[in-house]
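Same chain as my last thread, 165 residues:
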Amino acid sequence: MDSCRGYPKTYRTVNLLDFLLKNKATLAVAESLTGGHLQAAITATPGISEVFEGGITAYSLHQKTHLLGVTKTHAKRVGCVSVQVAIEMARGAAILFGTTYGIGTTGFADTAPHRKFPYAYWAIYNLPSEKIIIFNETLGENLSRTQMQEKTAGDALAALIHHLS
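reply #2:
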């Protein structure tokens, strides 16, 4: 696999930059599971500041609800990990940064006694249309914590690039 910082070449943000510019769109992210990996992948490309407004890593329930508008009762019930939480994080990032698109990631990067393998939920939200563009799950069987974070970031970026192309 030809890679850049652990992300497959096809996910490189140069394509993201071109597609966002072509679509006159901007992007912000809200990360939990990916812990900055999504922002690192996005900002690896020179010129990305033309379309990338910023991101936030919100790990706690309080920060997800306070900064991103995640529904507290639902998030508390599911341990902050669900499709709904990912969607609300994506929407919250777009609102917080005033962008066209927001990406939200949440999940579990490790195994646990009640989890056989890591999994994540991620979502892409279009603020002007108030529509969920896509949401999906990334499964991390046999992946390390870092590999799971990188895979989730790569999956979300590839989906946005595909949507914009």
